């Protein structure tokens, strides 16, 4: 009997990376929202996930290696440093970059809550779509693995 790990299948590997990216993006957006009233805080976002980069093994941090973790940005000494935390491993799926939000308040804060909520909703919808695709793919594998006639 041949044993195969599900992550050896390219489709599931890409879905795993996509879900990891979306999870990391949600963490960055939540950090932006949490700092909506912090003076001089600039909103951040992750670079868009690219299946092409994943297929080429680049992924944003060099050939085949895990993507680099963004250094925490602290504009004042009292700020909390937010970094994504993974329960299963230390791999992150994107580097946070300054987002180009359109408004800056007098205290230097550049977080627009409406934009952040739109990004959060978009990320959630993409996550739900990826989970649905994962579930359908698993159902197809189960069906293919069944003996004929069942």
The coarse overall form would be elongated
Q: Please, what is the average pLDDT?
A: 77
Number of helical segments? Answer: 3
Low-confidence stretches: 58-72, 83-90
The count of DSSP E runs of length 2 or more, i.e. the number of strands, is 2
Summing up helix and strand content along with how strands pair, one would put the structural category as: mainly alpha
Give a quick account of the main beta sheet: strands, pairing sense, barrel closure.
2 strands, antiparallel
Strands of the widest sheet, in order across it, are 1-2
Helix content: 40-55%
How many structural units, i.e. domains? Answer: 1
N-to-C SSE series? Answer: HEHEH
Rg over alpha carbons: 19 Å
Question: Which band does the percent of strand residues land in?
Answer: under 5%
- How far from one another are the termini? 21 Å
Overall description:
The chain is mainly alpha-helical and 150 residues long. The protein has one domain. It is 43% helix and 4% strand. It is built from 3 helices and 2 strands. The chain has helices spanning 10-34, 51-56, 113-145; strands spanning 44-46, 96-98. A two-stranded antiparallel ribbon has the order 1-2. Helix 1 runs antiparallel to helix 3 (113-145). The longest helix has 33 residues, at 113-145. The radius of gyration is 19 Å and the shape is elongated. Mean pLDDT is 77; it is low at 58-72 and 83-90.
């Amino acid at each position: 009997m041949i044993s195969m790990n599900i992550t050896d299948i390219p489709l599931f590997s890409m879905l795993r990376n996509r879900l990891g990216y979306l999870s990391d993006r949600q963490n960055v957006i939540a950090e932006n929202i949490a700092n909506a009233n912090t003076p001089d805080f600039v909103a951040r976002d992750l670079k868009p996930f690219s299946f092409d980069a994943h297929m080429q093994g680049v992924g944003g941090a060099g050939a085949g290696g895990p993507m680099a973790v963004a250094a925490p940005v602290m504009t004042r000494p009292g700020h909390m440093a937010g970094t994504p935390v993974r329960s299963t491993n230390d791999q992150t799926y994107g580097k946070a970059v300054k987002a180009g939000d359109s408004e800056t308040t007098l205290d230097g804060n550049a977080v627009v809550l409406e934009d952040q909520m739109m990004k959060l909703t978009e990320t959630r919808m993409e996550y739900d779509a990826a989970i649905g695709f994962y579930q359908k793919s698993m159902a197809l594998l189960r069906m293919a693995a069944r003996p004929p006639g069942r």
